[in-house]
UniProtKB/TrEMBL annotation:
GO terms for molecular function: ATP binding. SMART domains: AAA. It comes from Sulfitobacter porphyrae. Keywords: ATP-binding, Cell membrane, Membrane, Nucleotide-binding, Translocase, Transport. The gene is potA. It comes from the Bacteria. The keyword ATP-binding applies. This is Spermidine/putrescine import ATP-binding protein PotA. Pfam families: ABC_tran, TOBE_2. The lineage of its organism: Bacteria, Pseudomonadati, Pseudomonadota, Alphaproteobacteria, Rhodobacterales.
């Protein structure tokens, strides 16, 4: 599908004093997509979000909203709204008044405002609470009102700055579904900022992984998890093992390497790695354990295990190298591997990645 871009970030850099917060950042956010900026604290994601909102200006580069340069357009003239972690509701107003606030400022007439407020409260399942004040609500309910208020004027883009992080775990999970549904139903482009990889994988159409003020990778959740383009992404999103390997030969897409366990294998790689040392990345759940295993096979010793109900995590050791594996417990009898005993470890070459060291 060839959709218009809702947002284009072109070569954007930003320094705070001598500190470079963003360095030549480039990406596009497509219309109607749920786009997430994911990264550790300090990677620059909030700065980018604030730039799209208009609260921050890039030192160099351009920002386009539906093809139009917005760098010189003040925040209130951009059709962009933000939902904050702290809700930022007006405490002295009822919920209906909170949702109506932006519409009044935009000069909507009374009847249209009443209809829109009713519609928005219904969308976030808060119609019964219209006349309450924010103090009478739970955190999740406040966040729903903040969403209704931000969506009411029908913005072109909704920015969400870690909106779930103040909520408890159960509610956070429920709100993920609600946010996703709200995005699909309204068709508004959502730009979501989080440091929580699970939130990002669960909700997003596409994710931009940010690290050290740069875009490390952009892709669908599946691409980010299964095909990390570098060590930073493999490490930040999900668990992984990193093994040092010797590269014997390499092309743009594959590297033939000697593993620390003695085998010579051919493994996909996102970029051509030079002959010499590189890193083999393999997720714990891609390692098969047992008496007979599929694929590349080596022997390890079970050092420790951690039973977690649905899964068991294992710490293994082979030739002085630590290996993390995890297995789903499909039945009560699944968890049969004993600490201190030898076990075969196997993996399919295609499930690993060779990354530049
Ligand atoms: P967090 O999740 O902790 O909010 P973040 O990825 O959103 O992190 P930003 O808030 O974008 O990161 O900040 C990026 C870097 O720029 C940080 O090192 C931060 O300290 C710095 N920074 C941000 N705003 C300012 C400012 N106004 N003055 C000085 N430094 C700033």
């Amino acid at each position: 599908m060839n959709r218009e871009n809702a947002v284009e970030v072109i070569d954007v850099s930003k320094n705070f004093g001598s500190y470079q917060a963003l360095s030549s950042v480039n990406f596009e956010i497509r219309e109607n997509e749920f786009f997430t900026m994911l990264g550790p604290s300090g990677c620059g994601k909030t700065t980018l979000l604030r730039m799209i909102a208009g609260f921050e200006t890039p030192d160099t580069g351009r920002l386009l909203l539906h093809g139009r340069d917005i760098v010189d357009i003040p925040p209130h003239k951009r059709r962009v709204n933000t939902v904050f972690q702290s809700y930022a509701l007006f405490p002295h107003m009822t919920l209906a008044q909170n949702v109506a606030f932006g519409l009044e400022n935009m000069g909507w007439d009374k009847a249209r405002i009443t209809a829109r407020v009713g519609e928005m409260l219904e969308r976030v399942h808060m119609s019964a609470f219209a006349n309450r004040k924010p103090a009478q609500l739970s955190g999740g309910q406040r966040q729903r009102i903040a969403l209704a208020r931000a969506l009411a004027p029908n913005p072109e883009v909704l920015l969400l700055d870690e909106p779930l992080s103040a909520l408890d775990l159960k509610l956070r999970q429920a709100m993920r579904d609600e946010l996703r549904t709200l995005q699909r139903d309204t068709g508004i482009t959502f730009v979501f900022v989080t440091h929580d990889q699970e939130e990002a994988l669960d909700m997003s159409d596409r994710i931009a992984v940010l690290g050290s003020g740069e875009v490390q990778q952009i892709g669908t959740p599946l691409q980010i998890y299964e095909e990390p383009s570098n060590r930073f992404v493999a490490d930040f999103v999900g668990e992984t093992n990193f093994f040092e390997v010797d590269v014997l030969k390499a092309t743009e897409k594959t590297a033939t390497v000697r593993t620390p366990f003695g085998q010579v294998i051919s493994v996909p790689s996102p970029t051509q790695v030079p002959v010499g040392k590189a890193t083999l990345s393999i997720r714990p759940e891609k390692l098969n354990l047992g008496d007979q295993v599929e694929g590349v096979d080596f022997l390890a010793e079970v050092v420790k295990k951690q039973y977690l109900g649905g899964y068991t995590h294992y710490l293994l050791s082979a030739g002085g190298v630590e290996i993390r594996a995890s297995r789903r417990n499909a039945s009560r009898e699944s968890d049969t591997i004993a600490v201190g005993s030898p076990v075969h470890v196997g993996f399919i070459e295609g499930s690993a990645r060779v990354l530049a060291a």
